[in-house]
Every structure is written in C-alpha cells, then in structure tokens.
Amino acid sequence: MELTLRALGVLAALGLAALLTHFFEPAALSDAQERGPAAPAGPRAPAELASNPDRWMHPAGPVMALLGVLFALVVIPFGPDLVPSDLGIGVFYFIVVVDFVVLGLSLGGWGANTRNSVDVYYRATAQLVAYVVPLGLAYIGAIMMARSLSTVSIVEAQAGMWFIVLQPVGFALYLVTGLMQAYRPPFVEPFAAFIDHGVYGASFPWQALLWRLALSSLMFLIAAMGAVLYLGGWRGPLLPGPVWMLLKTFALMAVMVWGGSRAPLLTTGRMLELSWKVLTPVGLVNVLLVGALILLGVGPS
Amino acid sequence: MSFAEVAEWFAFAILAVISVAGALGMATTMSMFRSGIFLMASFIGVAGLFVLLSADLLGLLQVMMYIGGMLVMILFMVLFSHDPGGSMMAEMDMSLIERFFSLGLSSPPDEGMEHGDGMDMGGSGGHEGMEHEGMEHGDGMDMGGSGGHEGMDMGGMDMSMTTPVKRWAAALSLVLGGGLVALLLLRPAWPTTDATPSPESARMIGELLMSKYMMAFESAGLLILIGIFGAVLVARPGAYPDRDARDAYVTADLPPAPIEEGRPPSADAPVPPEALEEVTVNEAHRDKAGGPPSLNGPAGHAASQSAEGDN
Description:
The complex is a heterodimer.
Chain A: H1 2-28, H2 57-73, H3 90-112, H4 115-146, H5 151-157, H6 163-166, H7 168-182, H8 205-230, H9 241-260, H10 268-295
Helix pairs in contact in A: 1-8, 1-9, 2-3, 2-8, 3-4, 4-5, 4-7, 4-10, 7-8, 7-10, 8-9
Chain B: H1 3-28, H2 32-52, H3 56-80, H4 96-101, H5 115-123, E1 153-154, E2 157-158, H6 167-186, H7 201-210, H8 214-234, H9 243-250, H10 273-278, H11 281-290, H12 300-308
Helix pairs in contact in B: 1-2, 2-3
C-alpha cells in the first residue's frame, strides 16, 4: 500500500518536473542556435517517418528512456523525509540508471530504421563515451567530502557550507558534463536539426510524447542532482525544503541552459577531444584538491 | 508464505527468464544489433539476481558496465559487419526458435524501393538495402535432414540458406551443460548462514579493494591505462586531411559545404534555424555522400564515424 503510494508520488513528480522543465527551458535558450531536445514542438512534416521500423525495438526506445528517468527520480531528495527511497548507494544508482536513457536512444534510433535515426545511435553512444569518465569524476569530489553515496547524507554534509564553495572546480565540471549527459546545447549532436532532430523525426506521435517527457525530466534530474551535490539540496532559511530544492534546481538549470546555448556547438569528435584532453585531467586535479582539503581538515567533520 | 516471499520468488522467476531467454536470443537472432541487446538483457537479468541476493553494489556495477560496454561493442560490430540489422538473413530458412527471436525485424527492402535508395541506406549503416549477391553460400549442404526446415524460394531466387547445424558441437554443449546443472543439483548440502547483508557493504568493498586487494586493483588500472596508450598508438590516421574537413562532414549544425572550394565551414558560425529547415534531408544526404574525399563506398558514413576517434 505504502509502496503503491510512493510509486504514484514518483510518477506525479515526474510529470510535474517534465511539465515545469518543458515550459521553463525554452525561456533560457538562445534563439540563435540549435535547441536540442527542446526543439519546438508542433506539426512538422518529417522528411522520413519510420516506415519500416523494427517492430520491437522502435517502441521499446522511449519506454526504456522513460523507465530510466523514473528510476532515477527515486533517489532525489526534496526534504529530509521527502525522498522516495534513500538508498545507501543512491548517487551511484543514479549514474547507472540514467544510462538507460542512452540505451533507449540507441534502441529507438536503430529500431526506427531511417538513415537519420540510425545516426542517433552512433552519436548517442559516442557522446556516452565522451561524458562517462568526467561525469564520474564530477561526482567523486562531493562523495569524498560527504563520505557517503547516499543523497540524503550528501545534503546533510553540506549543513555548514555548500560544496560549491569548497569545490568550485568540481561544480564547473558538473555543469559541463551534465549538459553533455542531458544532450543540451552545445552538445546536441544526437538531436541535431541536420538529422531531423534525431529520434523526434522518426517517432510516431505517442513516442514523440514519451521522448519529450523523458528528455525534459532528464534535464530536471541532472539539475536536481547538481543541486544535491553542490548547492545543499533542500537546505535553506525560511522557506520549506521542497521549495528550496525546486528553486535551486531551476536556478541551476537556468545557468546551465543559458550558458550552454550560447557556447559554440561541438561535434562528437570535439566532445571526445574535450573530454579526454580537458575534462578528465581537470576532474583528476579536482580529486587531488578535494583530497588535500580533506587532509587539511576543511569540510564537514 | 508471506507476501515478501511470494514477491521474491516472482522476481526471481522473471529475472531468471530474462537471463536465460536473453542468452538464447543472443545466440539465435539474425540481427547483430539485437544479439548485442539480448546479451545486455541477459547480463541485466543476472544483475537483478545479484540485487535479489542483497548485493546491490555488484548488481549496479554490472548494469553500468554492460549498458555502456555493450552499446560501444555493438557500435563496433555494426561498423565492421556486412548485415548488422539482419534483414538480409530475414529471408532465410529459420528454425522455430530463430524465427521467434527474429520476430519483427524490419523487412528486406525488395518491395517498392529503388536500387539507388538501397545503396544509400547501406551508406548510413541502416539495416536495409544490402546487395543480394553475397548470398550464394552453400550452407544448405550442412544440414541434410536436420528436420523442421523447409526450403523457401523467393521469387525464383534460391534462398534456402540456413544456419548450419553442427551436431557434434550441439551434443557436446548439451552434455557439458547437463553436467554443470547436475553438479548444482546433486551437490549434497548447500551451506546456510545467518549473516545478514550489511547496509555498509559498499564501504566494506571499497576498503577491501584499497587494502587487501590493492595490488590487484591498482595493477588492473595500470594495465587498462597501458591498453589505452596502445589503442592510441596503433590507431589509423583519419581519412580526412584536417579537422575542419572532418567536421564539415560529420557536423551537426551545418549542411556540409563542398570542401574543395577552399572555405572550410566552421562549426562555430551560428546558422539561423530557417536556413536549416530549407535543406531537405534527402538533399543534405546527397551532398553528404558526394562531399568528402575518398569516402564514396557504402561504408563511407560508418568509416567517418569511426575515424572520429582516430584524430
């Protein structure tokens, strides 16, 4: 009974999050550039609809992606007691479960069987390779200081000071890799207009709806996780916890989307280059810095 | 039985079916892509079994490794194989189980599609439109009288290609598999323990890796690092003269301009969305196929994708 209630709560939260993000995100996007998964909806005539799809994998794509974001939402805390499930390994679980979105994009892209959508699979996988290592390094700083993988403990470890103050480098790294993970500009290669907006161009209407739901929630989740890791989660004066959490999430989303959509677009090749030559070394330096801070006794005791 | 026990049995049954059916599907489906996905499903089922045994960290590690790992592995399979989508094989004479796991594969492009189109599709790595000349295999010989197969003929062409049945290999695997199951079942007594799984297991695994097994852990890391160096060292140079030429071909944001005219389009110049809409996708692809030097074959697009990592 309680489990059912929680599941319904997560579903409702997902719908709300996707809705808020859907209307909030375009406001921060730059008009001059590609908009990635937030490309304007409306009646378009896709150049090639999926006319000869794989009958199992094509519909499985959006469902898999939606399952991924649904599972990921389970560990996001909106208050000390307002977390669907405080897993002991919550942050790691989050990283793993969000990967199902990539799996969904691959299934949907390949399964649609148009030449543009097959490109989605290539590009999404290459992007996965580009962000997966720096993303882990961006999480590690916060985990090291909090000495826990649980999202609730990480927020509570920031009672004295937010981690953004102690680890600005890690925060910057999270902003970049988070955008890459969310397929937002400047990392829109799998959703480029050139390939007819990726999976959108080869989806039937119900699939397009699920894709939008999944990808809007993905942006929300990544901003929310950023708020948990670096901005102190639900903590704040006066206002109740959930309000603070939402405020921080959307503030972070605004920063990410606004900044990202004004940076030059990157191809997958340059993303890999950025990842290996810049982000990964920066992440390793951040780990060293945080380790030194911990040895010096800075941070939560 | 309490509700929790029933739920546990139920979960076990589902996960076990996923693991076994995934492995079976991996071996019998006609599509390389599906094969990889089935293998991933099998491993994820096993990860679920780990979670059921309260080893959640191990389960999650398994999921993490196999989603990313399998997707990349399938990518390479697709880039290097002739018919990754299996539509060429979809016409062949399949056994029941092969047919089951190949259900719903996109059909071959014979009807209502011109030849030029077919070539194009091959170029984008799509699973349609492979030439049929490659199909004259003599495998029908191998399976005389294995039962259950009927010859099919497709519009005059002899399409009686089948997967060969290797009787000895099948017998051997049956015996070995039976032996393994027997070992499990006939084991005299399963040890039981009262120990309850600790919620701190992640921390304990971490401490073990950093103390008792540190040598193995660190040297594995070193080995992988050396492997990466090796991969960078032996990588082929890309097919493009410079980075701008490659970007002009693979870029997301610009319809590719002809490279010969000396003005390499830069990825940085923003293009108004209206300009992008005007280029229909078909035209864009025609440009794409003609644009880059030395990449005109059907594998051209795939090669460009693989060349990305090389520079």
